[in-house]
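Quick note —
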Amino acid sequence: MIKKITNKQQYHSAMAEIEGYLQKGFSNLTSTEEDHLEELSKAVEAWELKEYPMPMQPSFPDILIYVMQFKRYTQSELSEDLAISKSLLSEILNGKKQPNLSIVVNLHKKFGIDANVLLESVSG
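Predicted structure written out below.
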């Protein structure tokens, strides 16, 4: 069992195991497999945060792109999670529109992103 990922080979191996569990389906996993999946996910998350950190003062679009990369989301999936239209998400990503408070709050609640970072990214 992996406790900490220390190199890219371990990272890719863990990602392959996670993919296997996802293909099997959550409802088909044993409790041991569920525990291992959770452990792998935490190890992968820690590795990604260390190896692919978010910029120090990210723009709001940077934060959205980070979330999509981290969660392996498409724009459609993110727009669905944030309860906004695909076109609005696209305009925010392209810097044509600013997010409203509801979007900022949803991003904070659903993805655990620090509210101060989000507010600074909008006001900055």
